[in-house]
Amino acid sequence: MKQMSVDIPSESRRAGPVRVDVASDRGSSANITTRRLAPSDSLQEITTLLHRAYAKQVAMGLRPLAGRQSVDITEKRVFSGECYVAVDHEAPVQSRTGQKIVGTILFHEVEESKGPPWFEKPEVASFSQLAVDPDYQGCGIGRMLLDLVESRARDSGARELGLSMAEPDRELYEFYIRRGYRFVEFWQWPYTNYRSAILSKTLAPKA
Ligand SMILES: CC(C)(COP(=O)(O)OP(=O)(O)OC[C@H]1O[C@@H](n2cnc3c(N)ncnc32)[C@H](O)[C@@H]1OP(=O)(O)O)[C@@H](O)C(=O)NCCC(=O)NCCS
Question: Does 132 sit in the ligand 1 pocket, CB within 6 Å?
Answer without folding.
Answer: yes
